[in-house]
Write a structure and sequence with these properties.
Length: about 575
C-alpha cells in the first residue's frame, strides 16, 4: 500500500500544494519524495512509500536507464513481473515489481501494459517525449485513485479523494468535480506545453465479465462437478500463492467466517511450504461474547497460527465512528458499520505487531453469492445479474472499506478472491451451480474444499455472518449499540427535514442522518462519491444488517456439527 499524488499545469508554485499531498501520508509511512517533471516545472509527482518489495532504488517516481522521458507513479503489486521479465527479456534495473510496467509500456503502450499486468494497480505514466500522461486502474479497483480535471486543463491525482480538496485557490471545492477513476479502464491525456492536459478517450481494457475462450467453444464437453471443484481449488490456491510476494511480514484478518478462514489456512500452507522463519499472525476482533471471536479461535487452533484477539467496548466503537468516516470517505451505512471493526483491528496490528501485509476475504460474497438475501433470488439469472452488479460496484463499498481502513494505519491489504483469473473462471460456470443450494450460501465454493482438512467442518459450513454482525456481543449487538447512541444525537425533526438538507441520497433513518452529518463535515458537497446506499435485494429490507433478514434465524445446517463456544 502506497500513496500517489500528482498535479499537472498548476498556475501557482507547485510547492504551495504539498499540504494536500501530505493528507495521504498514512498510506506510505516509510519514505516520501516530491519531483518535478523534466521540462514541465508547473507539474509535480509525489509518492508516499510503504516498502513491501525492493530496495531504496525502487523509490518512486521511477525512471529507468535509457528512457529518461518516462516516469512511473504507481500503487500496487504486479504478481507476474518476474515471469514477464524472463519471457520477454526485460532488463530489470531494480527489484521492484512496478518497474515492469515501464517495460511493458515501451513494448506496446498503456493498454498493453495494463492488460499484461497480473495484479492490482493504480498507475500514472508520464511520457514527455510523446507529451502524454496515461492513467490505468486494475479490474476491480482494489487500488484506488481519484482525479479532477477542470476546464482550463489543470489535472490532479490522488490515492484518496481527501488529497484533492482545496487545490484550486479562489474556487469553491464544491464547484470542482472529483471522481474515482473507473476500474478496468485506461485514459490518456495530451500534455500541453503549458503543463496542462487535454483528455483523450476513456477506454475499458479489461472486464471481469469477459468469459474465457474455452468456455464458449461449441460442442465442448461440460466439466464434471469433480473437475469444477478441482479447478476452483487450483485457481484459488494459486491466487493466494502469487500474493505471498513480500519482503515484509505477512498476517491475516480472521473473522472465523468461511472466506477469511480459508484464506488464512492457505496462507499458512504456503508459508510452511516456503519455509518462512516467522509464524503466521492472525487477527480477530469483536465485542465481548462475539461469535466471530469464538469461530476464529477454532480456526487459529486448527491451522496453528499465532492468534491475536482484539476486544472493543461499545464506547470504543462509538468513538471510532467519526475517525472511520473521515478515513473511508463514505457515508454508506453498512460500509461504516463494518469499517469500525476493521479500522480497530488494523490499528492494533500497526501498533502492536510487525505485520505489514494483511490478507483478507473481500470479494467472496459478491462473487459466490454469499449474502443471505441471495436465498431470495427469483431465479438463477437474477442471482447472476446481482452478483455481477455487486462486483462492478465493489470499489465503492467493500473494497473501498478494506483499502481505507488498513491504509489508514500503514498496512497493505491483499484480496485473493478478487484474482481475475479465478473470478473469470468462477463466473463462466453455469448460473445454476453458483446459486445457494440446500439452504446454504456459497455451496459450490464450500463443496470444492470439503474433505481437504484445510478447515474444521463446522467452519467450512458455518452460515453467513456479516462482519458488522459477527463482531457483536451476545448481550447487545453492534447494531443496537449504534441505534442507542444515535437516538441521542439525531432528532425526529432533523430526519424529517433530511430531503431538503440532503437532496441526493437523502437519509431515511437516524443512523444514516448521523453518518451523513459527519461525512459533510469533512467532505461537504461530495455526496455523489456514493451513488446509492447499499441494501439487500428481493427482501423488502429497510436495513442492511443480515440480522434483520428472516433467513438469518433459519440458517442452521442440520447435518453439520454446530459451532460451540470454547
Amino acid at each position: 500500500m502506497c500513496g500517489i499524488w500528482a498535479l499537472f499545469g498548476s498556475d501557482v508554485d507547485v510547492h504551495r500544494h504539498l499540504g494536500s499531498a501530505l493528507k495521504i501520508e498514512h498510506r506510505g509511512p516509510d519514505s516520501f519524495r516530491v519531483e518535478s517533471i523534466p521540462k514541465f516545472n508547473n507539474c509535480c509527482l509525489c509518492f508516499h512509500r510503504l516498502a513491501i518489495v525492493g530496495n531504496i532504488f525502487g523509490m518512486q517516481p521511477l525512471r529507468i536507464n535509457g528512457f529518461p522521458h518516462l516516469t512511473l507513479l504507481y500503487n500496487g503489486e504486479i504478481y507476474n513481473y518476474r515471469k514477464l521479465s524472463e519471457v520477454y527479456g526485460f532488463p530489470m534495473q531494480s527489484s521492484v515489481d512496478g518497474e515492469i510496467l515501464l517495460h511493458l509500456y515501451i513494448r506496446g503502450g498503456i493498454e498493453y501494459a495494463a492488460s499484461m499486468a497480473d495484479g492490482v494497480f493504480a498507475m500514472c505514466i508520464v511520457d514527455t517525449a510523446n507529451r502524454q500522461v496515461h492513467l490505468a486502474r486494475d479490474t476491480y479497483g482494489v487500488r484506488p485513485i481519484f482525479y479532477l480535471v477542470n476546464e482550463d486543463g489543470f489535472m490532479a491525482l490522488s490515492s484518496e479523494a481527501k488529497g484533492l480538496l482545496g487545490l484550486l485557490h479562489g474556487c469553491d471545492d464544491r464547484d470542482v468535480t472529483i471522481r474515482p477513476f473507473p476500474p478496468g479502464h485506461i485514459q490518456s491525456f495530451n500534455l500541453l506545453p503549458s503543463g496542462k492536459v487535454s483528455p483523450l478517450e476513456l477506454k475499458l481494457f479489461h472486464s471481469f465479465e469477459e468469459t474465457p475462450k474455452w468456455a464458449s467453444v461449441e460442442g465442448s464437453l461440460q466439466p464434471s462437478d469433480e473437475d469444477i471443484h478441482a479447478n476452483i481449488r487450483a485457481l484459488f490456491t494459486e491466487a493466494v500463492k502469487k500474493r505471498m510476494m513480500s519482503s515484509r511480514r505477512i498476517g491475516c484478518m480472521l473473522s472465523g467466517g468461511l472466506d477469511s478462514s480459508l484464506v488464512s489456512s492457505l496462507v499458512m500452507k504456503q508459508m510452511v511450504a516456503a519455509g518462512m522463519e516467522y509464524p503466521l499472525q492472525t487477527f480477530s476482533i469483536g465485542m465481548e461474547g462475539s461469535p466471530d471471536i469464538v469461530a476464529a479461535r477454532k480456526v487459529a487452533t486448527h491451522i496453528g497460527s499465532e492468534h491475536h484477539e482484539i476486544s472493543f467496548t461499545p464506547e470504543e466503537g462509538i468513538e471510532a465512528v467519526e475517525h472511520v468516516i473521515k478515513a473511508i470517505e463514505s457515508y454508506d451505512i453498512t460500509t461504516i458499520r463494518a469499517s469500525v471493526g476493521m479500522y480497530l483491528v488494523a490499528r492494533y496490528i500497526s501498533k502492536e505487531t510487525d505485520t505489514i501485509v494483511v490478507f483478507s476475504g473481500e470479494g467472496s460474497d459478491e462473487l459466490a453469492q454469499g449474502y443471505i438475501y441471495f436465498h431470495k433470488q427469483p431465479d438463477a439469472s437474477a442471482g447472476d445479474d446481482e452478483s455481477r452488479r455487486l462486483l462492478k460496484d465493489l470499489y465503492l463499498y467493500d473494497v473501498l472499506r478494506a483499502d481505507r481502513t488498513t491504509a489508514a494505519h500503514g498496512l497493505e491489504l491483499r484480496c485473493p478472491f478478487l484474482d481475475h483469473h479465478f473470478t473469470s473462471y468462477f463466473l463462466s460456470l453455469p448460473k445454476e451451480k453458483r446459486c445457494p443450494k440446500n439452504g446454504i450460501e456459497k455451496y459450490l465454493f464450500r463443496k470444492a474444499f470439503d474433505d481437504t482438512d484445510l478447515l474444521p467442518s463446522e467452519i467450512l459450513w458455518r452460515p453467513k455472518e456479516a462482519f458488522s454482525d459477527g463482531v457483536s456481543s451476545i448481550q447487545k449487538s453492534w447494531y443496537e449499540v449504534l441505534q442507542e447512541h444515535i437516538e441521542t444525537q439525531v432528532t425526529s425533526s432533523q430526519l424529517e427535514d433530511s430531503p431538503k438538507r440532503f437532496p441526493f441520497n437523502p437519509p431515511r433513518s437516524k443512523e444514516a442522518y448521523y453518518y451523513r452529518q459527519v461525512f459533510e463535515k469533512y467532505y461537504p458537497g461530495r455526496s455523489d462519491w456514493i451513488p446509492y446506499i447499499w441494501m439487500p435485494k428481493w427482501t423488502g429490507a429497510t436495513d442492511p444488517s443480515a440480522r434483520t433478514l428472516k433467513h438469518y434465524k433459519e440458517s442452521e445446517v442440520s447435518d453439520k456439527e454446530p459451532l460451540e463456544a470454547q
